[in-house]
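I am writing to request your help with a piece of structural work I have in hand. I set the record out below, with my sincere thanks for your time.
___
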Amino acid sequence: MTENKKGLLQRIRAAGWGAIVLLFAAGVVFWGGFNWT
């Protein structure tokens, strides 16, 4: 049970970092396109 919980926490943490990176990249692209127009 401890191993399963540890794996789940790692998965959630990885998903959270992935979401942050995606939001950051989307924000950069959005602001870049907005400033270029």
Notes: Helices lie at 2-36.
